[in-house]
Amino acid sequence: MKLRPFLAIAYTLALFFGQLPFTTIAQTKPDARDEMLRKMDAQAEHYGRLSRQIWEWAEVGYKEKQSAELLKTELRKAGFQIQENVGEMPTAFTATFGSGKPVIGIMGEYDALPGLSQEDVAEKKARVAGAPGHGCGHNLFGVASAFAAIAVKDYLTEKKLPGTIRFYGTPAEEGGGGKIYMARAGVFNDCDSVLVWHPGDNNGASLGTSLANITAKFKFYGKAAHAAAAPDKGRSALDAVMLMSHAVDLLREHVPQETRIHYVVTNGGSAPNIVPDFSEVYIYARHPSMPILDGIWSRIVKCAEAGALGTETRMEMEFVNSVYNLLPNDALTTLIDKNMRRVGGMKYTAEEKAFAEKIRQTLPLENALPLGSQEQVQPIDSGLGIGSTDVADVSWIVPTAQFSAATWVPGAPAHSWQSTACSGMSIGRKGMLIAAQTLALSAIDLMTDPKQIEAARASFNQRRAGYEYKSRVPATQKPPLNYRDKS
Ligand SMILES: [Zn+2]
Ligand SMILES: [Zn+2]
Fold first, then answer.
1. Whole-model pTM?
2. Tens-place pLDDT, residues 260-306
3. What is the rounded distance in angstroms from the CA atom of residue 327 to the CA atom of residue 400?
4. What pLDDT, on a 0 to 100 scale, did the predictor assign at position 6?
5. 201 C-alpha to ligand 1 centroid (Å)
6. Ligand 1 center to residue 137 CA distance, Å?
7. Residue 72 C-alpha to ligand 2 middle, in angstroms?
8. Which end of the chain has fewer CB atoms at under 10 Å, N or C?
9. Pairing of strands 93-99, 163-170
């Protein structure tokens, strides 16, 4: 899969000529990092099987019991110390090897998405209709990161190097905010840098950011009455939801350009002939800057108060979640880009190419990268991410950088049956190896060169510009361990 041209040529020449005419080549020891990469190539099948197992289990946020156990078992076997139940979350853990500075973290996720069950075939076909599936490729995310941490540990042991490598097992990325509660538990505080990857349809490092968000449910309590016989006796909670929603829709015109607001009515009453005494709307607001979002959010709360005032109902806000915008790190991104170029992209087999072509027939391909782009590493991307992630909260505590590996056919979006299919087959596993090798190389650079750590810290301080991170999740709020349960 990987071509390391210089070494390949050197070995071929050495084989062909023997040692005599080319003593300099014969005496050249292969670089220790290349040796590590070759070892990882040989271990890829084992880790591929683990990723397939987690893909088949497809456990949703905070229910990833078997997936977390499988990763813990691998890491424990490799000599890592496991800290369980981090932040009072049964599927959150850290796995640490070594001691002293620096402390380098590698982050993993393993939660699946509801309703995305899919076979590993190039047509939409559920394994179990309605069941969860790995549409965000977190089965690969968790395993590749654990694989990298173990490879780094092997390297440190062999070379007798100091320092600490830590794997962060972070649950419920998809809406459960696991990392916010891990951050609150303080497990990132002693860390010098955190490396993160994410499955995607291309290989590349990123300076892109993401949107901060605040999400909440607004509950309105009115008075029930017969809607025809005694409407004057009723006070409609649904009217309050509609009045609030209308006010929010008017507000849209007067918010900063990059703002996103979306909502669903989660309870609109039970029957038309009863004035609803309870109604609820679930709202997300997002903006690239948390302080600006605070201002937008306080105006949304005013819209809710107006809804209650105008309808003579009572309003309660139930806070759900909030994540920050991602703070990119220039030094770490440059380091990742360099290492990803050393690892290189992937070549499809004829079978994989046929699979990819079939998948692409099912996709809108405007603006999609062409087939073949998986063989390359893309230039560093610096766009504004349009989603939100709880990785962002970590990025305000410790220098953090994220990159993408082409685990999905070019053009396949996240959270789709196509990305679920790719995450369970060989294309996903090839992308996972690129990620694991890039992570391992970058972690070793950080562990062996203090200048890299300093540069990462300097980038962090420069981008942070003195701003103090403070999660908008109330300190009394517990992790929503049952957020995926059906009510
Ligand atoms: Zn996702
Ligand atoms: Zn994801």
1. 0.89
2. 999 999 999 999 999 999 999 999 999 999 999 999 999 999 999 99
3. 8
4. 42
5. 13
6. 8
7. 20
8. C
9. antiparallel
Which amino acid, one-letter code, is at 416?
Answer: S
What is the Å distance from ligand 2's center to 84 Cα? 22
**Ligand 1 centroid to residue 378 C-alpha, Å:** 21
Cα–Cα distances in angstroms (integers) from residue 164 to residues 98, 149, 335, in the given order: 4, 10, 19
- Ligand 1 center to 202 CA (angstroms): 16
Helix axes 32-57, 65-77, angle to 10 degrees: 150
474 alpha carbon to ligand 2 midpoint, in Å?
24
- Position of tokens 């990723």? 51
pLDDT tens digits for range 337-385: 999 999 999 999 999 999 999 999 999 999 999 999 999 999 999 877 7
Looking at residue 431, its amino acid is: G
**Gap from CA of 228 to ligand 2 centroid (Å):** 49
Q: Residues with Cβ within 5 Å of ion ligand 2? A: 136
- Residue ranges and CATH numbers for the domains of the chain are 1-28 (no CATH), 31-207+337-464 (3.40.630.10), 212-323 (3.30.70.360)
